[in-house]
Amino acid sequence: MKSVAPILTVLAAIVVLWYGAAVWLNSQWIYDQAARAGTEVTATQVLTETMVQDRPVLPAPHQVAQGLWQGLTGQAITSKRSLVYHGWITLSATLAGFVLGTVAGILLSVGIVHSRAMDMSVMPWAIASQTIPIQAIAPMVIVVLASLGIKGLLPKAIIAAYLSFFPVLVGMVKGLRAPEGQQLDLLSTYNASRAATFWKLRLPSSMPYLFASLKVGIAAALVGAIVAELPAGASSGLGARLLSGSYYGQTIQIWSALLTAAALAASLVMVVGLIERATLKRMGMAR
Amino acid sequence: MIWTVGAIAVWLVSWGVNHYIARHHPNAGWAKLLVPVLFGATLLVLWEGLVRGLNVSPVILPPPSMIAARFAQSTDLLWGDFIQTILKGALSGYVIGCGAAIVVAVLIDRSPFLQRGLLPVGNFVAALPIVGIAPILVMWFGFDWQSKAAVVVVMVFFPVLVNMVAGLAATDALQRDLMATYSASYGQALMKLRLPAAMPFLFNGLKIATTLALIGAIVAEFFGSPTRGMGFRISTAVGQLDLPLVWAEITVAALAGSGFFGGMALLEKAVTFWHPSQRAK
Question: Of B118, B214, B246, which is closest to A140 when you measure between CB atoms?
Answer without folding.
Answer: B246
